[in-house]
Design a protein that fits this description.
This protein is globular. Helix 18 links the parallel strand 24 and strand 25. By secondary structure, the protein is α+β, with helices and mostly antiparallel strands.
Length: about 850
């Protein structure tokens, strides 16, 4: 009897073999077509989680499959290694960010290697390495020379305790996510990338990304947010200047009842100089985050300035001007005109401040009594109460207003974008230093190429809030490269999204002296298949698309799109548990008893089972991959990740599921190691003339090969696993009796082992060796299905009488229509259903259905 499969021993054995032989090193073999598979690289937080296991299993399956298909595969791994968590560790644990990061990388590298992933570790990069970011600094300086990078003042979220800029996502209920301090809006000098230069191209090129999920393309299109509208320059009563407003709804101009400007609008700043109450109101507005989400949830507040805007088309009509907390300076012109009847935000504001609500668009079928109560009317309709626009459609009214504005000089048609230039400055230590020097005489001076990289000083202190680089006089004080006078380094570092916007290209030439080596770019880029979470649909993926366009303008690459194909995987979920006090519990803290109850392990108290949610430390519904791999082996975890759900959907982690996968691993082991008949030697051809059960087994094998291949191509990995299990059942039911049967069985087992190779590589390698082969399974070609064995001789079709199924018949494929009709009409149930009534006609759909009409 064969010994029980020992996953720990076998997996360690084959991982060592692969590493020793350098099996997965990319050779740039020009005789084979190239294929680049990449999963989004992780932040080195310390340990991998189940989300990592899933995404890297998916990518590894694709890499191994493409390799077997004859491609020269590039499949690298690295680390998105800069970021705030390292600084937090420095403050909380007294460990240097570099030490914390490199230690975590070592731990996580070992964990990933324990999964048997087919990475070319010789290409490993870490974004915190000067060998990496010196090239990033060089590319930035080239973008600066091309005017794609620039510095200007911008409104940002400022944490006055941590003394740093916060991203919109780090502002929670108006407070800093870490310090809890009330966030302020501050106008600070910031480095920016001109992503808006490419807004049209980024938007229109989405159509070419046919192998991207539609949902991601829609999200990017919405984020870019191209809007067609008009600019209106309102004259101001009693003043010579004007208030410029951009609107996407110029058709509603006759419904305007107020104008509003952002708290940071120049007009608001001017008025605040002589109005202490307005100054206080602006300060209150500046304590709200700058994100649209923050403004949507905040209570709408306004301050009446006493100024009035003159309506461009209605003589004698003026609109009061407010400073409002829901208007952002970064969007449009920082000023709006409010139409309460047709914008919900404006309606809420108007109700609060008792402003008129004038209906100027109403449904086509509505009468004169149409009104707006608590919900604005935002649908299409016809213009009313609008002078020369009455009776026009919304679109025609927009054009008419734009024409009139242009004729009068009070405005014109305009296209604008939601997309704003990318702010890349961060007032933090653990990031890539921005390679410029500020000189009082020369201004901004790029660091000379020969002085790159500008590295981070190691002797920094985190014993007080703020950016340690700002306090490091020895590091930041340097001679100006242009004039030699004392000058100051820029103490900001790059947003970590900069690091991840080009790493995929560096993998193609990780040791090159130049940022991107042209031959390597031609060989490997763009990435053929990118795999990662949909949460990166906008920022990372959009920034990467911009970066390639910027690098093309700088002469580094000759392509625009970084990723030809994109697969976004779902989350890994687990049910949640809470005790009687509402405390979250880890799965290992509970037990399921025979009576069906769930209790705490330590005290036996009741446990409430909650809904299944994404695994998270806050809910404690996490399972440590290291524990699973130690108990069941990596292949079992990989199989479960593939078999339970389509990759784009969420996956429910269950103990029953992982145990079922483990049982299947043991079954495969026994099936191959203990065949029911002695198998012929490896490599022996299948004898001709095989029939009966052996032929049926051969057909099942080749149909499985064809179906699994198609499923992998279409990312239907769970279906591929199901088909492999079906073939296992067929093999298990096969009762061989002679040499021909043994040959068919060997073919089936060999095919089965090759098919599971991308999914369970360690087990497959061991079984391949047990079948008598000496070469690596991962170097074997993918099997091709024999067309003669996957073509059905017969087909079962339904027979209907007046549209109701009455029988099924088995016929030869592509049978003569008359023969099919005769067979169907001879069926007893069909005869009974016709019941002697005259047959009007018989409709035959070849190989599919027969419908008898009586």
């Amino acid at each position: 009897m064969v010994e029980r499969y020992n996953a720990k021993h076998v997996e360690a054995k084959w991982q060592a073999e692969w590493d020793t032989q350098g099996v997965f090193r990319s050779q740039a073999d020009e005789t084979r077509p190239s294929y680049y598979v990449l999963e989004m690289f992780p932040y080195p937080s310390g340990r991998i989680h189940m989300g990592h296991v899933r995404v890297y299993t998916l990518g590894d399956l694709l890499a191994r499959y493409r390799r077997a298909r004859g491609f020269d595969v590039l499949h690298p791994m690295g680390w998105d290694a800069f970021g705030m968590p390292a600084e937090n560790a420095a403050m909380e644990q007294g460990v240097h960010p570099a030490e914390w990061t490199w230690s975590n990388i070592a731990t996580m590298r070992g964990q990933l290697q324990s999964m048997g992933l087919s990475y070319d570790w010789d290409r490993e990069v870490a974004t915190c390495s000067p060998d990496y970011y010196r090239h990033e600094q060089k590319m930035f300086l080239d973008m600066f020379a091309e005017d794609l990078a620039y510095r200007r003042e911008a409104w940002v979220n400022w944490d006055p305790v941590d003394n740093t800029v916060l991203a919109n996502e780090q502002v929670i209920d108006g407070r800093g996510w870490r310090s809890g301090a009330l966030v302020e809006r501050r106008l600070l000098p910031q480095w920016m990338f001109r992503i808006t230069n490419f807004a049209d191209d980024l938007l229109e090129s989405l159509e070419s990304l046919e192998r991207w999920p539609d949902s991601v393309r829609v999200m990017q299109a919405n984020w870019i947010g191209r809007s067609h509208g008009a600019t209106i320059r309102f004259r101001l009563a009693g003043r010579d200047d004007r208030l410029e407003v951009f609107t996407t709804r110029p058709d509603t101009i006759f419904g305007a009842s107020f104008c509003a400007v952002a708290a940071n609008h120049p007009l608001a700043s001017e008025l605040a100089k002589s109005d202490p109450e307005l100054t206080a109101f602006i300060a209150e507005c500046n304590r709200t985050g700058t994100s649209e989400a923050a403004l949507e949830t905040a209570e709408k507040q306004g301050y009446a300035t006493g100024l009035e805007a003159i309506h461009p088309f209605s003589d004698g009509v003026t609109l009061p001007i407010y400073v409002a907390n829901f208007v952002l300076m970064e969007y449009g012109t920082g000023a709006i005109f409010g139409v309460p009847a047709h914008d919900q935000r404006d309606l809420d504001f108007a109700r609060k401040y008792d402003l008129p609500v004038r209906i100027v668009v109403r449904p086509r079928d509505a009468g004169d009594d149409f009104s707006v109560a608590d919900e604005a009317f935002t649908d299409d309709g016809l213009l009313v109460n609008s002078d020369f626009l009455n009776g026009l459609t919304v679109e025609n009214a927009k054009k008419t207003v734009a024409e009139r504005l242009d004729a009068s000089g009070d405005g014109e048609a305009k296209t604008t974008y939601r997309l704003r230039d990318w702010i890349v400055s961060r007032q933090r230590y653990w990031g890539c230093p921005i390679p410029v020097i500020h000189c009082d005489d020369c201004g901004i001076v790029p660091v000379p190429d020969e002085d790159l990289p500008v590295t981070l000083p190691e002797d920094v202190s985190f014993d007080e809030p703020g950016n340690p680089l700002e306090r490091h006089e020895a590091w930041k004080t340097v001679p100006c490269p242009a004039c030699g006078k004392s000058a100051t380094r820029d103490t900001d570092t790059f947003d970590t999204f900069v690091d991840s916007s080009w790493y995929f290209a560096r993998f193609a030439c990780p040791n090159a002296d130049v940022p991107l080596e042209p031959d390597a770019m031609k060989r490997w880029l763009p990435v053929d298949q990118y795999v990662g979470g949909i949460e990166h649909a906008i920022l990372h993926l959009l920034y990467s698309r911009f970066f390639m366009r910027a690098l093309r303008q700088c002469g580094y690459v000759d392509f625009d799109e970084p990723f030809s194909g994109l697969l976004t995987q779902g989350m890994v979920c687990h049910e949640t548990y809470q005790d009687g006090d509402g405390n979250w519990l880890f799965p290992e803290q509970i037990e399921r008893r025979d009576d069906g109850t769930v209790r705490r392990l330590d005290d036996g108290s009741d446990v409430q089972i909650g809904r299944s949610e994404k695994m998270s430390k806050s809910r404690r519904n996490v399972v440590d991959p290291a524990d699973m791999i130690d108990q069941y082996g990596a292949d079992t975890a990989r199989l479960f990740m593939l078999s339970d759900s389509p990759p784009e959907r969420d996956l429910e982690w269950t103990e029953g599921g992982i145990e079922g996968a483990w049982r299947y691993v043991q079954r495969l082991w026994r099936m191959v190691c203990e065949p029911s008949i002695e198998l012929p030697p490896a490599g022996q051809p299948i004898p001709s003339g095989i029939g009966g059960a052996a032929l049926d087994l051969r057909k099942a094998t080749h149909k499985t090969i064809a179906a699994v291949s198609d499923d992998i191509e279409r990312f239907r990995f769970n279906r591929a696993v199901a088909r492999i299990r079906e073939l296992s059942n067929t093999i298990g039911d096969f009762a061989p009796g002679d040499a021909a049967d043994a040959s068919a069985l060997r073919e089936a087992l060999e095919s089965l082992v090759i098919l599971i190779g991308p999914m369970m590589p360690h087990l497959a390698e061991e079984l391949w060796r047990r079948l008598g082969f000496r070469d690596f399974l991962c170097n074997q070609p993918w099997p091709n299905a024999d067309p003669s064995l996957i073509t059905e001789d017969n087909v079962v079709i339904a027979v209907q009488v007046n549209g109701k199924k009455r029988a099924t018949v088995e016929i030869a494929v592509d049978s003569d229509q008359a023969a099919v009709e005769a067979t169907a009409l001879a069926e007893p149930n069909v005869i009974a259903s016709i019941a002697g009534k005259p047959v009007r006609k018989v409709i035959v759909v070849p190989n599919r259905i027969v419908n008898v009409v009586v």
